[in-house]
């Protein structure tokens, strides 16, 4: 069966399970409900459920599609899909091979968010193809992010307490909410401004929003990159520490230049908000390296830049210092 008769009324995410865990149960986890709401699309091998969500800064509405069998997607449906979520059993080679078998059916989908989800990715008693370094390598080559629902605990201890990234289904939700969907609607301007001011006044460390940075198709999660660089298997490039430091400094210079342009009233390419949003993770990393007054000033600078990029009223941010 093909999906030629399906034309989505809004953008969406397809959820595919290559294990006994059903796509519907994954959608329940994303929605945070025990049972599914009424579906908006119902075919023999596809069901669609609408998800309306609101974050601190914006609201949006998308469709979550549970797909049971491989089928051809029509152009309109393919164009509406901006995220792909696979669930597989990292201990079974057949489950991983099932993921690979789906790739030809997804070739016409240009998804910005691509997640490969499993319970955990351990190396004990698994086929060589399922070794963690090989799964991570595939993720990098195919621009997927590996999300473990129960990640190894040793990795969590290395993260700074204030900047721990979301885990499990929280990370799935975070990744979906960080993408700028077509019907993106900003939250009430006054509420946003009051929230920003309160964060700067009470605790600068919390200035970063709960939403993650916009992870484009060309980006890979920080956890995936760290795990990959730590792997020593064949085919992996040895990273020169000095070169890595230079690249980090260049990234910071780009962020500083972008912030200054927005604060001066310039709009790089007419897309200053998206540009700022895509570099939010790096700004958060820079903030984590600052302390005291420097951290507060940088938080204010970022807050003002985002506000101006959103076209906010200058009177609403009076009192925030953006001259530093």
TrEMBL record:
Residues 241-252 have a biased composition (Acidic residues). Coiled coil: none annotated. It comes from the Eukaryota. Residues 193-209 have a biased composition (Basic and acidic residues). Residues 210-230 have a biased composition (Polar residues). Residues 193-252 are annotated as: Disordered. This is Alpha- and gamma-adaptin-binding protein p34.
